[in-house]
């Protein structure tokens, strides 16, 4: 999309020049990270790059998903890019705009787009497989005067440590295993009974948390969508979320590939550059092949999501391919860097960690392999028995 190319280059330059050098501080967290993140946000606003895919009427850039796809790669080349540029709440803004009550939309949407409010999404539980949301044990009971009382635990909740709101999947009816009777409730984290139980470092990285809800009271108009029909909203969110993350993983894989090539050209091994060695050339070829194979799958998935078409097969392929590609390309780059690729002087350890966790979080490879294969074979069976 040629008309987006200049904007994409501006975003890429901002992430490369402003976000990459800040990653060490941002990774460490704490007050210095918060102060630096806010400075980056102010710079993004001043540069006209703030919240590009969020609604223009709420203060965002109003960029459609198709146009945003290539920009998402550039933003996502750093884990901190989406937050610094204001696009991180896209999933939550989309969910609340489509399924939130009038009060919820009025109270929270503009603050989410401006960056004054932060949200997170809590679905997975310690004792329940994340791939089986129908087994959710967290419960929400009706209060006599209206509203709900929520009790349960969730874990691997991204950014819960400084969130103002959390969307919680809870059972409001039926029995464990039923696909109906589940609801999404928007819980202010300042509510009595809400507690961040602990941080869950993922291969040493911060950002994931376990939360506890002990009789947290939630207003009736803070249910998202229709009571008992949360899985439809969750499925819609997952399609967009997985496509977005796949785009960002491709951006990180491209970053790892660029580092691999720079190292091969600049580093001398004995009498010649590493680039002259056939085994290094093989690393370059295999990494490029993985990138060129995965990128079209990811963009095809985003196009289908943007068009509102069923994208479950395409998203499953894209998510799996992008996660594997990031892990493979980062691993090859580490191999070419040698010991330097294991230490703190390059982003490769973080990229490798992200690639490995990407194959589990947001649905493990095995889930997507089985789901995609079942859908394809089901459609083939249906076609085989349909009379001509």
Question: Could you please describe the fold and organization of this structure?
Answer:
This protein has 388 residues and is an alpha+beta fold. It folds into three domains: 2-88, Butyryl-Coa Dehydrogenase, subunit A, domain 1, CATH 1.10.540.10; 119-228, Butyryl-CoA Dehydrogenase, subunit A, domain 2, CATH 2.40.110; 232-385, Butyryl-CoA Dehydrogenase, subunit A, domain 3 (Up-down Bundle). The chain has helices at 5-19, 23-28, 30-46, 65-76, 81-84, 90-99, 102-114, 230-266, 278-306, 312-337, 348-358, 365-385; strands at residues 119-122, 139-142, 148-158, 165-171, 182-188, 194-199, 208-218, 223-224, 268-269, 272-273. The strands form three sheets. Strands 1-4-5-8 form a four-stranded mixed beta sheet. A hairpin with a 2-residue loop joins strand 9 (268-269) and strand 10 (272-273). The mean pLDDT is 94.
Gist?
The chain is built from 12 helices and 10 strands. It is α+β, with helices and mostly antiparallel strands. It folds into 3 domains: 87 residues, Orthogonal Bundle (Butyryl-Coa Dehydrogenase, subunit A, domain 1); 110 residues, Beta Barrel (Butyryl-CoA Dehydrogenase, subunit A, domain 2), CATH 2.40.110; 154 residues, Up-down Bundle (Butyryl-CoA Dehydrogenase, subunit A, domain 3).
Task: Give keywords.
3 domains; Butyryl-CoA Dehydrogenase, subunit A, domain 3; 10 strands; single chain; alpha+beta; 388 residues; Butyryl-CoA Dehydrogenase, subunit A, domain 2; 12 helices; 4-stranded antiparallel β-sheet
């Amino acid at each position: 999309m040629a008309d987006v190319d200049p904007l994409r280059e501006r975003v890429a330059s901002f992430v490369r020049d402003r976000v990459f050098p800040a990653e060490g501080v941002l990774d460490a967290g704490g007050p210095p990270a918060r102060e630096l993140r806010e400075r980056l946000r102010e710079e993004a606003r001043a540069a006209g790059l703030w919240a590009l895919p969020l609604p223009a009427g709420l203060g965002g850039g109003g960029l459609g998903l198709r146009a945003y796809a290539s920009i998402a790669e550039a933003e996502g080349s750093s884990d901190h890019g989406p937050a610094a540029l204001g696009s991180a709440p896209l999933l939550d803004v989309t969910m609340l705009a489509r399924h939130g009550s009038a009060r919820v939309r009025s109270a929270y949407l503009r603050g989410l787009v401006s960056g004054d409010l932060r949200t997170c999404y809590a679905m997975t539980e310690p004792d329940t497989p994340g791939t089986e949301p129908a087994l959710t044990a967290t419960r929400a009971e009706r209060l006599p005067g209206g509203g709900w009382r929520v009790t349960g635990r969730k874990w691997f909740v991204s950014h819960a440590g400084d969130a103002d709101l959390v969307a919680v999947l809870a059972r409001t009816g039926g029995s464990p295993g039923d696909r109906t009777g589940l609801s999404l409730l928007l819980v202010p984290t300042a509510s009595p009974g809400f507690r961040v139980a602990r941080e869950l470092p993922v291969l040493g990285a911060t950002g994931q948390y376990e939360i506890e809800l002990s009789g947290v009271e939630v207003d009736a108009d803070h249910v998202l969508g229709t009571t008992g029909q949360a899985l439809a909203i969750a499925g819609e969110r997952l399609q967009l979320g997985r496509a977005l993350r796949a785009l960002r993983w491709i951006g990180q894989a491209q970053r790892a590939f660029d580092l691999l090539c720079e190292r091969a050209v600049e580093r001398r091994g004995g009498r010649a550059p590493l680039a002259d060695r056939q085994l290094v050339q093989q690393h370059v070829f295999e990494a490029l092949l993985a990138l060129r194979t995965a990128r079209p799958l990811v963009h095809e998935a985003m196009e289908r999501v943007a068009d509102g078409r069923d994208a479950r097969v395409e998203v499953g392929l894209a998510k799996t391919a992008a996660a594997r590609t990031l892990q493979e390309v980062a691993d090859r780059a580490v191999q070419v860097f040698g010991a330097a690729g294991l230490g703190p002087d390059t982003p490769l350890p973080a990229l490798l960690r992200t690639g490995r966790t990407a194959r589990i979080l947001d649905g493990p490879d095995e889930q997507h392999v089985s789901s995609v294969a079942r859908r394809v074979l089901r459609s083939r069976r249906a076609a085989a028995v349909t009379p001509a």
